[in-house]
Amino acid sequence: DGGITQSPKYLFRKEGQNVTLSCEQNLNHDAMYWYRQDPGQGLRLIYYSQIVNDFQKGDIAEGYSVSREKKESFPLTVTSAQKNPTAFYLCASSIWLAGLTDTQYFGPGTRLTVL
Amino acid sequence: KNQVEQSPQSLIILEGKNCTLQCNYTVSPFSNLRWYKQDTGRGPVSLTIMTFSENTKSNGRYTATLDADTKQSSLHITASQLSDSASYICVVIPLPNTGNQFYFGTGTSLTVIP
Hints:
The complex is a heterodimer. By secondary structure, chain A is mainly β. Chain A contains no helices and 13 strands. In chain A, the strands form 3 sheets. In chain A, strands 2, 4, 5, 6, 9, 12 and 13 form a 7-stranded mixed β-sheet that branches. In chain A, strands 1-3-8-7 form a 4-stranded antiparallel β-sheet, with no helix packed on it. In chain A, strands 10-11 form a two-stranded antiparallel ribbon. In chain A, strand 5 (44-51) and strand 6 (54-57) form a beta hairpin. By secondary structure, chain B is an all-beta fold. Helices cover 0% and strands 57% of the residues of chain B. Chain B has no helices and 11 strands. Chain B has strands at 4-7, 10-14, 19-25, 30-38, 45-51, 56-59, 62-67, 72-77, 86-94, 103-104, 108-113. In chain B, the strands form 2 sheets. In chain B, strands 2, 4, 5, 9, 10 and 11 form a 6-stranded mixed β-sheet that branches. In chain B, strands 1-3-8-7-6 form a 5-stranded antiparallel β-sheet, with no helix packed on it. Chain B is globular. The chains are: A mainly beta, B mainly beta. The A-B interface holds A 1, 4, 6, 31, 33, 40-45, 48, 50, 56, 58, 88, 90, 92, 96, 99-101, 103-109, 111 and B 4, 31, 34, 36, 41-46, 49, 89, 93, 96-97, 99-100, 102-107.
């Protein structure tokens, strides 16, 4: 898991609730990412950020929001607009040099379950 | 459409045996290809990274090969151990890359039994 942490490990959400997943890294990486992992599917990109105060939508951003106020932190909010949020969420970070990305380091993941 | 396909979907082998996992991709051109190991309920951990010009890369008992002509990569595990039980994910990064394009395979689930 390297120097990237996620919390909580398990999270339960009631219908209509917003929940926030934490992701922190001490690797001094510029780029950070949020992925969703469902059984039998490859990782799907939700949001990514290459610099502080800037982030971009990934392939499945609907129903999610992020912020990047600090280089070390990239929290993900799962809103009530996300109709099927039960999944395993992975945060990753990497060095970002213009046009090239280095190895992604992943956090341990957060398993979100809707009750 | 850029795709990464892995086979088999799942595999069960006896402890001590060797195995080979396959990754076929259509991403072209590409910057590098990576293999990750993901233990159940954990985040993926990088095993190997190969650029388009490399044919093989080893990491202990793990050896990855790459054939850029046929767009195939394989991960060979030698003398398997119980701790090798995990999902193995192939990832291809295309060229050019604006920083958000990572093509993930669906993974091969490996179970090593005593």
